[in-house]
Design brief:
37% of the residues lie in helices and 14% in strands. It is α+β, with helices and mostly antiparallel strands. Strand 2, helix 1 and strand 3 form a beta-alpha-beta unit. The protein is globular, with a radius of gyration of 13 Å.
Length: 105
């Protein structure tokens, strides 16, 4: 992909909101419902404009990672924390690393 993978999630007891550029928003809803235990109608995807994805945005791994990180840090995470986690990932990711995790390959 020509632009970095990025995802921001807000997971609450009653709903989940996801901001992501994806080619498969229905897959994103299904994955989020499975990971959060919420019904699909409680998942909102704010699909962002994308360009130059070349099929990479057919995957839902950035959504899975963002939900897992936010839920691990604070089970009732706020959007502010989700944005902070995403910003941290941008600062710490490298080639081959998770876009939202402080990992190296």
């Amino acid at each position: 992909t020509m632009e970095p993978m990025n995802t921001v999630v807000s997971v609450r007891k009653e709903a989940c909101e996801i901001w992501v550029g994806t080619q498969v928003p229905t897959f994103v809803v299904a994955v989020a419902a499975k990971l959060t235990g919420l019904p699909p109608e409680k998942i909102t995807v704010h699909n962002q404009y994308i360009g130059g994805g070349f099929g990479r945005r057919l995957e839902t791994d950035s959504v899975q990672q963002a939900i897992a990180i936010v839920r691990a840090r604070v089970p009732e995470a706020s959007p502010e924390l989700a944005a902070q986690v995403a910003a941290e990932g941008i600062r710490t990711s490298g080639a081959g690393g998770c876009p939202l995790c402080a990992t190296t390959s």
